[in-house]
Structure formats: structure tokens, C-alpha cells
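Notes from the 1:1 (GR / supervisor)

We went over the backlog. Supervisor wanted to see one worked example end to end before approving the batch request, so GR pasted a single chain during the call. The sequence is below; no edits were made to it. Supervisor asked that the structure be written out right there so they could see what the output format looks like.
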Amino acid sequence: MHGGVVGALLESAAIVQLIWSADADRIPKIIDLQVDYLRSARPVETFARAIITKHGRRVANVRAEAWQDDPARPVAAAHAHFLLTP
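Structure output shown during the call:
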């Protein structure tokens, strides 16, 4: 599976987690995204989860992981910073 697809999945998981946890009505703007590719992703069903590590008034830090067969063996992880609009 192409790395861009995995990166987009991680970014989407982070954004959805931010919107859901903050009950936001606007999409947060991404400041930066760092993706660590840990192993090859095969063309099978892929899952992702995100955890907000810090949620300030203007900036939020989020960590996301993607896995395929076993959640304990992620294929990629990401760290992202988002600008929260008032």
C-alpha cells in the first residue's frame, strides 16, 4: 500500500478525533505532520486510532497509529500539530 494513503488515513484519524472530542464545528488546520513508517503496509483492511496528547486553546498535539492485523504491531505512526480556530 502506498505511503501517501497510510499518511492520509493517519491525518484523517487525527482530525476526526479532534472534532469529536472538542465537539468542534470547524475543521482544525494542520500545522505539521510527521509520519513514521514502521513496516510495509499490505493491501488489506487497515485501521487507525488517534489520541490527543495536548489540547490547548489554540494548538492541539495528536498522535495516531495505523495497523492491519494486530493493534500491537502498527504499520505507521504519526505526530501532528493542529491550529484550532476560535
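Supervisor's comment: The first strand starts at residue 29 and ends at 37.
Batch request approved.
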